[in-house]
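B., you asked whether I could sanity-check this one before it goes into the benchmark set. Here's the sequence:
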Amino acid sequence: MVSEISLGSWLTYGVGVEADKARACLQASFAAGINFIDTANIYGRGAAETFLGDALAPRPRDSYVLATKLYFPMTDSDRGLSKAQVEKQLDASLKRLQTDYIDLYQCHRYDENTPLEETMAALSDAVRSGKVRYIGFSEWPADRIAEALALFGMEKFVSSQPQYSLLWRGPEDKVIPLCAANGISQIVWSPLAQGVLTGKYAPETQPPKDSRAASQEMGGFMDRLMQARVLKAVQDVRQVAQEAGLSLAQFSLAWVLREPNVASAIIGASRPEQVDENAAASGAVVDPVLFAKAEKILATALGEGA
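And here's what the prediction gave me:
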């Protein structure tokens, strides 16, 4: 069982956010009822896991759910989902995180260079060894998910981690229906479209100096989202959120959580007040008519029709 809002660490903890601020965000998360922490070995090439290992060490291990991932290159020769890499990267993550087990171990992408049977057997061994409780994947195409589910004698995936937001609805086509039919829940990343759905970016205006879009390290994935017509539409959706009695960020998170197959939405935070605001989206009740209104505004801006 995981909280509907979870705390992520991509581009933030151990890298882009000072340790004291990161610890404050972690404290605020627990205070707000968030029990689910998501990271990956590639975040800061181990720095995020190392930070979390130190910060979580004083807490009872059964008081939080810890997820990490593997796939992306940690060195020139260490990458992918081979048996050797699963074993090596899992042990390295356990050491950095200062724990005996990972609650959820995820394949960060699909590995076209390793037989699926080898990957699934290695993950199954990790579960049966006690080092991992459950397994999941991130951004796998539907056909690969189906192939993994069809393998005999392997541990089954319990989670999918796709990008999903009002501005990115791709998983609705194939991934969510397949997962829902097979007992796999979504843990979605970038539910606020890397901060665009907080409304902090105004059209035809330079982004705030302390924002992700203004950072060379953190803003490289945002070009599609920073178009003037999209930013104008986001400001229009802010008015819809106000009708719902929510901030734009809370409304956007509530929209993601309206999908029954979504178990949790991963937020990023550099300040505790961001955690508090986002956590308040859990349990929000919104008239579906307002969600439909927001969807229409943004679909038009993205050129997807009304």
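One thing to flag: The chain has one domain: 5-195+252-283. Otherwise nothing jumped out at me.
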